[in-house]
Write a structure and sequence with these properties.
Length: about 200
């Protein structure tokens, strides 16, 4: 089932997610709905807060990035077919010299900005079967994981911008929070911002 994606301004996007227990109600159904929602919106990642749930789950499928001709063959191979659910994830380490990449977010449609992140990340998480993993990722794959991980920490990519950039974006972000935006997918806008 395709779920509406929560828009910028909703308080759920600012909550630190809580851990999920293995007996979380209808977990497999939730994950299936999240995948369907993400693909419908043409995203490469989706976190539970973006569908209104303040829990520590996010999904990543970087396959669409594998066609980027600006990437090395090795990077393309790493991205192609990478599809994973991360449950109760914790970033253990981020390292390397920060690099800039243009990011966007399904909760903030039509806003893209350059964001600095470190190129390597080590993350521990549980998979869909609640098996534990600790893995290291690099480059664009690391960046997508860091972006989605930020969501379960209550952080948005716009938080990482300079004060000037934030001021320049303020009007557009306010418009999104008031539902004055069109997206190619279902969205849910914060009631408090609509004056209800």
């Amino acid at each position: 089932m395709i779920l509406p994606i929560v828009a910028y301004g909703d308080p759920v996007l600012r909550k630190v997610g809580v851990d999920v227990a293995s007996d979380y109600p209808k977990l497999k159904e939730l994950l299936a709905n999240m995948w369907e929602t993400m693909y419908n919106a043409k995203g490469v990642g989706l976190a539970a807060p973006q569908i209104g749930l303040p829990i520590r789950i996010f999904l990543v499928d970087t396959t669409p990035f594998a066609d980027d001709e600006g990437l090395s063959e090795e990077e393309q191979k790493a991205l192609d077919g990478f599809k994973k659910a991360f449950i109760n994830a914790e970033i253990e380490e981020e390292e390397g010299e920060e690099w800039i990449f243009n990011e966007g977010c399904l909760s903030i449609p039509d806003v893209r900005e350059d964001v600095k992140r470190k190129p390597t990340v080590r993350i521990s998480y549980l998979d869909e079967d609640f098996k534990s993993h600790t893995e290291t990722y690099d480059g664009l794959l690391a960046r997508v994981i860091q972006h989605e991980y930020d969501h379960i920490e209550g952080v948005l990519f716009t938080d990482k911008l300079s004060g000037l950039k934030k001021r320049l974006l303020k009007g557009r972000l306010t418009s999104i929070s008031k539902g004055k935006i069109s997206a190619d997918y279902r969205m849910r806008f914060p009631d408090i911002k609509k004056g209800r």
